[in-house]
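Problem: given the chain below (208 residues), write out its structure.
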Amino acid sequence: MSEDPHELEELLDRLKACFPSAAPLQLRESADGWGELEERFGGGYAESWFDAHDGDASGRLVYEGFALLSLEQSLEARQSFAHLRRASGLSWKAHWMLIAVAQGGRAIAINDRTGAVVALSPDQPKAKVLAPSAEAFLRRIVEAAEVGAMVWDRTLGLTNARVMYDRTQHQRAEIARETTRRNRLIVILVLLVVVYLIVSRWVDYALK
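Solution.
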């Protein structure tokens, strides 16, 4: 655990400041009911995380498509997630506590024995270590957002600015190509109408 018991709270405050006022991060107060989990999660790392907050009340995506879980949500998701990973032959440890989930069976968890933050994905048999601690994980996100290396997106939350730029440029290029195709079609239709009117007048003149 962090030597500074307030470091998580300070980092979470900085994280909230990275979100626009129109879409604020709404972290709940510390979670209740941890007492009955002390025997299963005695490392103190997961407890510190949920003591600092109890998930995002808004339900919006916070980081790279991940939504922060409350303790109750974490415990509910943990059972089904553990079952699915074991059934798929993927690694699962009893001391992992889920803290965020995303579509496609992806999740982020805290290793309650070491404090490390790990990423779990269906296409990765083993967990990938994202940071040695929850503090280090949050600090990396916050510092990147504060210098513009990460930006807020309404569909993903905080995301890599370069990837977001490339995605935006690709979308603009697609829109430009679609606009060009549409304009060409309009020109063709106009020309067809003009030709039709000319031919119609010529036919009327020829029949007189």
